[in-house]
């Protein structure tokens, strides 16, 4: 098992440490956005990955780092996996906008371009929170490309282990109106107690009818060592120096659904199996994918009205 290389107050840009994971996800989005059979439409991912400038991540975006004889790492499976994920979180925002929620928060926004590519209702405000260097980079590259946000975008460089609610309020967040929050690909990079603190803060800042969406992992579920080993081999094969499992915070953590459920949220889970079926994709024919098909997926929480 990899030893974690994380420590309190560590920082990064988009080429290093946890920042490179954001660029890697954007590379998958760039790949899935290509060609006549594109599964998603993220028109900015490719330019962002190229601007970061890390060779193996550019090769990922170009489809040159897929492994065709691997049931999960071949191009088709990789693009389907990111399509399921991207469409899920896109739908969270689209449905919230349809239901009149005008305040959105993207926690750990990385190279997420939803504030630039989605069609937001008039008056919508989208807050983005991530490490300062990550926020500055994306804002600069998008401006250099001449791309403007399609909502009022308020980008905040802050560490999500720190007092980010204060920074959010200072930037005009209104805790009296319902909010739609997403934390896509974030929680495993937070220490377990910082995850709890983050969920407490989201709860405290969420007016009735607010929504919060993130990945789902069943209580007690952990990543098997075989997965860690597999990822290491993949990294070595594509020439990446990122040891992904070493960026995670290990140790027991509360299951998000249980934690929020006990704090007045109504929980809805879409398992990986259900998510794939909803998109018309087959689950990869792979032992690990099968193992995770019912115990992992996506979660939406809705803040109940006060009784
Ligand atoms: C896997 S990436 C996901 C990015 C984006 N949500 C997406 O799905 O494309 C993880 C993101 O979490 C951010 N992150 C992790 N821990 C953080 C922390 N303590 N403070 C601020 N951002 C953090 C990283 O900077 C990175 O952008």
UniProtKB/TrEMBL annotation:
InterPro entries: Ppm1/Ppm2/Tcmp, SAM-dependent_MTases_sf, SAM_mthyl_Trfase_ML2640-like. The keyword Magnesium does not apply. It is an enzyme of class 2 (transferase). One of its GO terms (biological process) is methylation. Keywords: Methyltransferase, S-adenosyl-L-methionine, Transferase. GO terms for molecular function: methyltransferase activity. Pfam families: LCM. Its EC number is 2.1.1.-. The keyword Methyltransferase applies. Gene3D superfamilies: Vaccinia Virus protein VP39. Belongs to the UPF0677 family. Exhibits S-adenosyl-L-methionine-dependent methyltransferase activity. This is S-adenosyl-L-methionine-dependent methyltransferase. It comes from Mycolicibacterium sphagni.
